[in-house]
Amino acid sequence: MSSTESAEPRRTALDAVHRALGATMTDFAGWDMPLRYGSERDEHRAVRTRAGLFDLSHMGEITVTGPQAAALLDFALVGDLGGVGVGRARYTMICRADGGILDDLIVYRLAETTYMVVANAANAQVVLDALTERAAGFDAEVRDDREAYALLAVQGPESPGILKSLTDADLDGLKYYAGLPGTVAGVSALIARTGYTGEDGFELFVAPDDAEPLWRALTEAGRDAGLVPCGLSCRDTLRLEAGMPLYGHELSTSLTPFDAGLGRVVRFGKEGDFVGREALAEAAARAEQNPPRVLVGLVAEGRRVPRAGYPVVAGGQVIGEVTSGAPSPTLGKPIAMAYVDAAHAAAGTPGVAVDIRGTHEPYEVVALPFYKRRK
What is the maximum alpha-carbon separation in the chain? Predict the structure, then answer.
């Protein structure tokens, strides 16, 4: 394959649909993905107040199956996956031996000896390679299932009603972070109550050939409820308002889960050793005695938007760095997540600013998340 061919972005099963809808497309992690269809602010608000429909087929599905599937995942990941019930899911991470985060994951236990690991698009190959390597000596198979699935998400307060009109699956009994096989609009799907928006919603894993009929059925079913197609741009502002980390911004190989304020995902109490245990135990002790920088929220007093990499300052000194920033449609102000020195991490800490191209713009330090839905 020539370098020109290998540089061609991959297209999801819904590519023609996005183009017919006039989507602005962008290259994201090697995939041609819809950035927005019209106004990203309108799409964002639709998810907060009504419902939005997303194509997330760029995510990486990896199946782990076999008698020792649970044991393999307990060794390879930082969480207790053997303790996850069939039909439930868990947010977890895969780390290097030095404790650095390779990716954050959602793992679904589909059957007693079958799990589906969902990795971020940019890290799917890295995760697949690490799991394959760590599977040595375990009676379990790691299978690349990225081509086997398309992934659609319906997110927002109207999403349960929209989905109920297309399935007889027990959505009321489906808890957050649970998944069950079912039929939606005549299509076989894994229906998961998960999402990355801060709203109630569902993610539907289906065969790629079924993606377009399902998208059309959901669009039709959601018409009266105000469902709109949504791109990656509003997905980013939604997750930012909800204080959810994005790999490559709040998470990286240079940070451990404890550095990211997500030490709760590391389960030292599980049976057996796991990759990174020693380094993570040291990181946990460090975080307790002398916390490094802490992930906080920042809300602008002015209108200028901070971007990833901008320095956070106080008293003329750099005290941290912005990891994600955007205008918040819900708050009506620019917001950011940033790692700042522990001494400046308390909500309401005075004198904190972001250096935006040489100007120190005042920001209020707040606890995350910026937005929490009413349940």
Answer: 62
Averaged pLDDT, 41-65: 98
Q: What strand order describes the sheet that includes 10-11?
A: 10-11, 31-36, 24-28
CA dist., res. 135 & res. 363, Å (int): 47
For residues 32 and 18, the answer to whether their CB atoms sit within 8 Å is no
Mind listing the domains of the chain with CATH numbers? 3-57+149-241 (3.30.1360.120), 293-366 (2.40.30.110)
The owner of tokens 């398309």 is: 150
pLDDT (tens digit per residue) in 205-241: 999 999 999 999 999 999 999 999 999 999 999 999 9
Closest C-alpha among 221, 247, 244 to residue 152: 221
The residues facing 363 across adjacent strands are 300
In this prediction the pTM is: 0.96
Question: pLDDT of 181-213, one tens digit each?
Answer: 999 999 999 999 999 999 999 999 999 999 999
243 Cβ contact partners less than 8 Å away, ≥ 6 residues apart = 297, 337, 368, 369, 370
Beta-bridged to residue 88, according to DSSP, are 178
- The neighbouring-strand residues paired with 203 are 153, 192
DSSP string, 38-85: S-HHHHHHHHHHSEEEEE-TTSEEEEEESTTHHHHHHHHSSS--TTSP
Q: Six-digit token pair at 26?
A: 């962008």
Q: Give the pLDDT confidence score for residue 6 in this predicted structure.
A: 57
